[in-house]
Amino acid sequence: MSCTTLLVGKSATIDGSTMIARNDDSGSGRYDPKRFIAVNPCDQPRHYRSELSHVSIDLSDDPCRYSIVPNALPGRGILAECGISERNIAMSATETIAVNERVLGADPMVELQPAHGNPGDDDYRPEIPGGIGEEDFITLVLPYVHSAREGVRRLGELLERFGTYEANGIAIADVDDVWYVETIGGHHWIAKRVPDDCYAAIPNQLGLDDFDVEDALGDARDYMCSADLAEFIRVNHLDRGMGADSLNRVGRFNPRTLFGTRTTKDHIYNTPRAWYMERYLNPSEDWDSPAARYTPISDDIPWCRRPENRVTVEDVAFLMASHFEDTPYDPYGTRGTDETRHRYRPIGINRTGQMGLLQIRPYEPEANRSVMWLQYGSGPFTTLTPFYTNVRDTPAYLRDTGAEVSTDSFYWTSRIIAALADPHYVSNSNAIEHYRENVMSHGHTHIARVDAALRGATSAGASAGTGAGAGHAVSCADIEDVEGIKHSGVRVDAPVGAADDAASGESADCRTACDALEQANQQMADYLRSQTQELLSKVLYTSSNLMRNAFAMSDR
Questions:
Q1: Dist CA 365 CA 462 (whole Å)
Q2: pLDDT (tens digit, 9 = 90+) per residue, 140-172?
Q3: Which reaction does it catalyse (predicted)?
Q4: Is the pTM of this model over 0.85?
Q5: Known active-site residue 3
């Protein structure tokens, strides 16, 4: 996938949450419809077979529930893309990256080898399955882990055992940590924890630029890797350091230099995106003059940095939809020349299927701690909308995406709006800006109201002065629009899975919380649909008036 990733540590966000976000962009000339679904434990396969690589893997019988945004159409496997589990673990997979020929020669990709001939023939060779890849990662990892660190370990073990047929970056987060994994060849991998006060900007390149092998193979505080990484580097002469003992030691190194690529295509397709994200989040630095430390074609743009201000949902929304605004490289702008305006690949492109911002909030109880801010279609023409993920079902408007173009689907309506508005970007920009402002501001209000109502319900069911909801009085006005919450008495502070009902495997408190969150999601989807239909009407009217065959004179 041709994607862009932004990761933000908990001390670098405005509210102390962890955030991982990624544009899920399809390959050139292809558009992959998306849907938002919940996967209940009974729906999780116990024997998994990859549709692309044909690898088969037996899975344990204890998965948890999780919500994902997979492809809507069959043919390429599940491709879950991004998800959050009921245990408040978030995962986004994948960011397509590249490793160099030296790595591929030392550890080739594990590709599917089709059968040759027919059984019984002298030249018959049976099929040899390939490894695991983007299609599989979330399904194989997310419902089985209890922390981001455990998720990295499980993914690493799967990569070492089954291998992979592609180079990828994978983000895994919980309420405290954000980890980023990069695959190195067919069986090797490295992972780094994003510092709490930093963000990481990743644009389809092997991005890690600093790695401590001693920590990774020791305490693993901030780094992890495949067990034989140091030997792999030594035996295959991958260390490019100029020190006298560089061939005999592997300590701290730059993975980009050892494993990554540096090509002309990177300077058109990848590095400009990292440059723009860091330009936005660290604006006081010189990014544009001839003396600027980093330019759009710099190969050493840092993987992670400390932002000048705490990062907001709106910052992420802007960046993941951005197209080099206020630079000569904006395809919709007036600065520069026609050549500069089409020189670099923007972050928000026509081929985006969905963008999920996965937010895990430390100040809310486990039941409603996680929110997925979701948008479908090309970023400059759509909006992020928040949905709770600890649910058993999702709103039809985002769930039931089909192959047929329909305005009953948020995905298809967003695609239609983008195609209509793009030729007349400036003329439609005010309507799109107001739409985004309305939906996101309503989303903030809606989430705050539901959170408060759940705290109020908890407080009502707890002893005075105790419980997670103590000190959070909620008025009737705060909760009158959230059906099923006011008198539920749900304990959202109870651990997930506590006091399980024998028949369903789910506690009564958990069922009640899910009911409330599903209702809240439906209300948010209803508002989103009304606003999206209104935007479609406005864009259709404006763009119709700007058709090339328009004629102002009429007979009346």
A1: 14
A2: 999 999 999 999 999 999 999 999 999 999 999
A3: an L-aminoacyl-L-amino acid + H2O = 2 an L-alpha-amino acid
A4: yes
A5: yes
- The identity of residue 314, as a single letter, is E
Most distant CA pair in the chain: distance in Å? 88
Contact at 8 Å (CB) between 512 and 387? no
- 311-341 pLDDT, tens digit per residue, is 999 999 999 999 999 999 999 999 999 999 9
The angle formed by the CA atoms of residues 442, 443 and 448, to the nearest 5 degrees, is 100
Q: Which strand (E) or helix (H) includes residue 253?
A: strand 252-253
Closest CA to 265 of 183, 168, 344: 344
The H or E element that residue 429 is part of is: helix 425-461
% helix, strand, coil for the chain, step of 5: 35, 20, 50
Q: If DSSP codes are grouped into helix, strand and coil, which group holds residue 204?
A: coil
Helical spans, DSSP H, in 80-206: 101-106, 137-141, 148-162
Task: Please say whether the dihedral angle defined by the alpha carbons of residues 406, 409, 412 and 417, taken in this order, is positive or negative.
Answer: positive
Peptide bond into 94 cis (omega under 30): yes
Give the number of other Cβ atoms within 10 Å of residue 284's Cβ. Answer: 6
Cβ proximity of 192 and 222 under 8 Å: yes
Strands 199-202, 304-305: pairing kind: antiparallel
**Annotated catalytic residue within 3, 82, 198, 514:** 3
Alpha-carbon torsion, ordered 317, 322, 327, 331, to 10 deg: -150
**For residue range 192-221, what is the model confidence (pLDDT) as tens digits?**
999 999 999 999 999 999 999 999 999 999
Q: What is the pLDDT of residue 242?
A: 78
Closest CA to 52 of 104, 105, 129, 148: 129
What phi, psi does 448 have (nearest 5°)?
A: -60, -40
Neighbours of 58 (CB within 10 A): 9
Rounded Cα distance between 110 and 126, Å, is 16
Instruction: Return the DSSP state at 546.
Output: T
- pLDDT score of 244 more than 70: no
Return phi, psi of residue 489, to 5°: 65, 25
- Is residue 23 within a helix (H) or strand (E), and if so which, with residue range? strand 18-25
CA 509, 513, 519 angle in degrees (round to 5)? 150
Q: What is the pLDDT of residue 241?
A: 83
Reduced to 3 states (helix: H, G, I; strand: E, B; else coil), residue 116 is strand
Whether the CB-CB separation of 232 and 39 falls below 8 Å is answered with no
Give the position of tokens 């995106």.
273
Find how far residue 204's CA is from the centre of its chain.
13
* Sole residue written with tokens 């908990």: 10
Specify burial of residue 215 (Cβ count, 10 A radius: 0-12, 13-18, 19+). Answer: middle
The string of DSSP letters for 345-383 reads --SS-TTEEEEEEEEE-TTS-GGG-EEEEEEES-GGG--
The answer to whether residues 163 and 198 touch, using CB atoms and an 8 Å cutoff, is no
Amino acid at 427: S
